[in-house]
């Protein structure tokens, strides 16, 4: 990998890039550095996806959501669950194999069950928050359906808080070009 510093003139930059490419260099492909970091175990799959989400974020909320995922809060929760389960398993194994061992607390089913029930709820919470994040990032497909001239286009514009749909006082939706005339209305 080589870094070249030069004047910011686009013509000069393009000339340098062209010269370097003619001499055997290759441009990095989209996502190549993230891919290499993933395969070299510098990033996990969640972090690689978060980088993609950050690159394609179209609002501050989406960027913040990506940054929140990058802090790997869900991963920390899953790691905590894994460690708790391993502790319980280790404790049970010691109880079975060395029943008179003094260094480990003896666990009964009544003591383990509430802890396991609590741990079972955590992945469900993580899953629900992931669903909300997915909906926020990917959006929802919604159909506004009703009889003609009820106000579907107006409703869409209000929901989006912008004039996305054409609203016309005559029944039906009309697209008016410079060459077309407004349809006449007979009363």
Task: Briefly say what this structure is.
Helix content is 57%, strand content 0%.
What proportion strand?
Answer: under 5%
Largest sheet: none
User: Helical amount among residues, as a percent range?
Assistant: 55-70%
The ordered H/E elements are HHHHHHH
How many domains in all? 3
Distance between the termini: 75 Å
Which descriptor suits the 3D outline? flat
Radius of gyration: 30 Å
Q: Which class do the helix and strand fractions yield?
A: mainly alpha
Classify the oligomer.
single chain
Mean pLDDT: 79
Unreliable sequence segments = none
**Total helix count?**
7
DSSP E strands, number: 0
Protein name: 28060_t:CDS:1
Domain MnmE helical: 45-141
Organism: Dentiscutata erythropus
GO molecular function, one term: GTP binding
Describe the structure.
The mean pLDDT is 79. With 187 residues, this protein is mainly alpha-helical. The protein has helices spanning 10-22, 32-39, 45-55, 60-70, 73-97, 109-138, 152-160. It folds into three domains: 1-71, no CATH class; 72-140; 142-180, no CATH class. The chain contains seven helices and no strands. InterPro entries: GTP-bd_TrmE_N (IPR018948), MnmE_dom2 (IPR027368), MnmE_helical (IPR025867), P-loop_NTPase (IPR027417), TrmE/GcvT-like (IPR027266). It comes from Dentiscutata erythropus. One of its GO terms (cellular component) is cytosol.
Supply database-style keywords.
single chain; 187 residues; mainly alpha; 3 domains; 7 helices; 57% helix; flat
């Amino acid at each position: 990998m080589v870094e070249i510093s030069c004047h910011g003139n686009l013509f000069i930059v393009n000339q340098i890039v062209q010269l370097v490419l003619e001499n055997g260099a290759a441009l990095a492909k989209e996502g190549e550095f993230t891919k290499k970091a993933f395969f070299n175990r510098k990033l996990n799959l969640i972090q690689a996806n978060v980088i993609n989400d950050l690159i394609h974020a179209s609002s501050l909320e989406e960027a913040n959501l990506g940054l929140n995922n990058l802090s790997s809060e869900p991963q920390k929760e899953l790691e905590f669950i894994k460690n708790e389960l391993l502790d319980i398993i280790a404790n049970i194994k010691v109880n079975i194999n060395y029943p008179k061992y003094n260094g480990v607390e003896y666990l009964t089913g009544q003591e383990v069950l509430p802890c396991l029930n609590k741990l079972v709820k955590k992945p469900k919470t993580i899953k629900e928050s992931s669903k909300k994040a997915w909906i926020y990032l990917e959006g929802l497909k919604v159909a506004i359906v009703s009889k003609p001239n009820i106000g579907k286009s107006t409703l869409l514009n209000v929901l989006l808080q912008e004039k996305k749909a054409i609203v016309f006082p005559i029944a039906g939706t009309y697209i008016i070009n410079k060459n077309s005339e407004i349809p006449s209305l007979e009363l």
